[in-house]
Amino acid sequence: MPVSEASPAVAVERALNILEAAAQRRDGMTNSEISRKLAIPKSSASYILRTLERRGYLRREAETGRYRLGLKILSLGGDAQANLDIAILPCIHADTW
User: How many domains does the chain have?
Assistant: First the structure.
C-alpha cells in the first residue's frame, strides 16, 4: 500500500510495508525490488533496510543482496503468543465460525 507523504509516520509505515513485502517472498527481495513494489525512493528504502537489518528484523544475504525476514520477527511473534490470554481464545475462535 503506497504511503501518503502527508502521513505523520511515513518512515514507520514504510518500514512495516517493507517487512510485509519481505514476508511474502521466500527468496527475499533486493533494495530495487522493494522500492519499485512499494513506490518509494531507493534511498529511503536503503535507509530503512539498513535499520531493520541492524535491529535484526531483516537479514541481508551478502552474495545476492536480498533481504529476508530476520529472527527478531520470530521473537516478537513468540512474545505476542506468550501474552495471549488463553481464556479468550475460545471466544475469538467461536466468532469466526
Answer: 1
Contact 69, 29 (CB under 8 A): no
Residue ranges making up the domain that contains 64: 10-71
DSSP, residue by residue, 55-70? TTSEEE-TTT--EEE-
The model's pLDDT over 28-60, given as tens digits with 9 standing for 90+, comes to 999 999 999 999 999 999 999 999 999 999 999
3 state SS of 64: coil
CB 49 within 8 A of CB 32: no
Distance (Å, whole) CA 57 – CA 68: 9
Q: What is the value of pTM for the model shown?
A: 0.75
80 domain-assigned: no
* CATH number of the domain bearing residue 66: 1.10.10.10
Helices (H), 39-83: 42-54, 71-82
DSSP symbol at 85: -
